[in-house]
User: Which sequence fits this backbone?
């Protein structure tokens, strides 16, 4: 028998780390070659990793939620005929309970030749995602610490001499309670005695402490508040200042209900839960003791998105131009395509026509389909269009792209957009699908937003924001009519794209959306 350690592989694009999302196996489980053992999240997508060996899981070397560098061992698998049975995995380097130690040297050479090619095949396969560990793992670290124990001053443990010595010291503490010296003279002569009454004393009869005449807010002329001792005690427990409570009792007295109501109104409020109760972005966060904050580590997709956006915003000089467009004819085309037999079962939206308009405009203005190579100090013009479609997912924004989108007709482009967005929202977009994009479209209109100033996807020279389509009064052929109108916003890298080129490109996109027949003329 031999124990193999599986290092975290680079699943593509030169990624240096990944997060362990979920273990699919636990120590003692029997695994087969290519069986999915763990799900990881890289900076670009979720990936499931298969086992390169057959054997028994000896140990999980990292916990769920840990971020691990590429090349770090994450799991140990016992291979060969002497592998321990399920539930009896032996630690690395230790003999199995079911096998004498002397038998191990003979088993190891047999397992090693088989493991090597399997490991090589698994690392080259670009396999993906994470599993779920056992409840015992990390239990000691998570065990809740209990209190210090019983009160040390128990009567049985106090020596007689100590008890005798403590008795005289305790007497003065109890003495003031049966001697209500201060309240006694206050009742017959309220005005002179008021200053002698300390703040919030407990009256011996449980009644109201008498004070000079109160004003309309329940406060006495010298600032005292009318309240019974139980109410004062409740206010102290709740941390309520009686002077700030609005009294509703007879004669301006503060009641228990007044104190409770004031405490409820002063209590810090938190936002209501979201309607779908689906907050995966909070799942890995730590909630503060008062429940007012959740702190979520920045990693994986969100970390890579932030790095890319900062690099883009502070590297490429952004310029954004806008155009308001009458897209009534595009809406009519969408309605006709939905009734077309060739498009049966295909999702047809205005975004499809906008994407096609972008491809046509790129064909007319290929200079915008470029990137800036700062290291080589060169402009790289692309003779193909990998059209990126920005997709909002629970794990953050991703921008997969449709490879060679310029070669697709309208029907194949519709199918490609549908597949791309469905894969992205399921968190299954591969790193390769998000690489080598040349131009991006972001559909902010799906959220009811008119327009925005989009930030360039790194390595690209342009990005188009497609706004919400609304019916508005519009001057059409000299008359005011209700028309379908949208706004377009084009951001571009001013190192690569001059203002004239950006304006002409956006104008051509708008012409196709105003009248899709323009595409027939250009082609």
Assistant:
């Amino acid at each position: 028998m031999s124990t193999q350690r599986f290092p975290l592989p680079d699943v593509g694009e030169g990624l240096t780390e990944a997060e362990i999302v979920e273990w699919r196996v636990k120590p003692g489980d029997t695994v087969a070659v290519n069986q999915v053992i763990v799900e990881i999240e890289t900076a670009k997508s979720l990936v499931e990793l298969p086992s390169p060996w057959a054997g028994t899981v000896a140990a999980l070397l990292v916990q769920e939620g840990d971020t691990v560098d590429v090349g770090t061992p994450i799991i140990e698998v016992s291979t060969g005929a002497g592998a321990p049975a399920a539930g009896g995995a032996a630690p690395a380097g230790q003999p199995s309970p079911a096998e004498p130690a002397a038998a191990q040297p003979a088993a190891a050479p047999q397992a090693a030749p088989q493991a090597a090619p399997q490991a090589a095949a698994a690392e080259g396969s670009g396999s993906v995602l994470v599993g779920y560990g056992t409840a015992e793992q990390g239990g000691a670290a998570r065990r809740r610490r209990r209190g210090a124990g019983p009160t040390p001053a128990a009567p049985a443990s106090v020596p007689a001499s100590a008890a005798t010595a403590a008795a005289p010291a305790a007497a003065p503490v109890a003495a003031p309670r049966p001697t209500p010296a201060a309240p006694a003279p206050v009742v017959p002569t309220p005005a002179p005695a008021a200053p002698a009454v300390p703040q919030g004393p407990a009256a011996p009869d449980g009644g109201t402490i008498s004070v000079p005449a109160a004003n309309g807010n329940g406060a006495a002329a010298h600032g005292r508040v009318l309240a019974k001792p139980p109410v004062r005690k409740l206010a102290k427990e709740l941390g309520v200042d009686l002077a700030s409570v609005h009294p509703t009792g007879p004669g301006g007295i503060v009641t228990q209900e007044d104190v409770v109501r004031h405490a409820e109104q002063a209590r810090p409020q938190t936002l209501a839960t979201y309607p779908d109760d689906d907050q995966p972005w909070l799942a890995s966060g730590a909630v503060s003791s008062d429940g007012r904050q959740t702190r979520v580590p920045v990693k994986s997709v969100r970390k890579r998105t932030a790095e890319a956006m900062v690099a883009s915003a502070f590297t490429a000089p952004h310029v954004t131009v806008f155009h308001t467009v009458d897209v009534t004819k595009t809406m009519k085309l969408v309605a006709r395509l939905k009734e077309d037999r060739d498009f049966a079962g295909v999702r047809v939206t205005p975004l499809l026509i906008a994407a096609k308009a972008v491809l046509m405009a790129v064909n007319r203005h290929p200079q915008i389909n470029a990137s800036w190579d700062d290291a080589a100090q060169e402009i790289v013009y692309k003779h193909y269009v990998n059209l990126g479609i920005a997709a909002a997912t629970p794990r953050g924004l991703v921008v997969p792209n449709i490879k060679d989108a310029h070669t697709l007709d309208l029907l194949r482009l519709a199918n490609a957009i549908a597949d791309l967005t469905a894969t992205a929202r399921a968190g299954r977009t591969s790193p390769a699908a998000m690489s080598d994009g040349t131009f991006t479209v972001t559909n902010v209109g799906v959220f009811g937003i008119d327009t925005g100033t989009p930030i360039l996807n790194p390595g690209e020279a342009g990005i188009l924001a497609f706004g919400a389509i609304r019916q508005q009064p519009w001057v059409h052929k000299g008359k005011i009519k209700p028309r379908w109108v949208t706004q377009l916003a084009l951001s571009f890298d001013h190192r690569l794209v001059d203002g004239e080129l950006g304006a002409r490109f956006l104008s051509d996109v708008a012409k196709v959306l105003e009248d899709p027949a323009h595409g027939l003329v250009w082609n």
Observations:
- Confidence is low (pLDDT under 50) at residues 82-222.
- The chain is about 30% helix and 20% strand.
- The chain has three domains: 2-134, 221-267, 302-522.
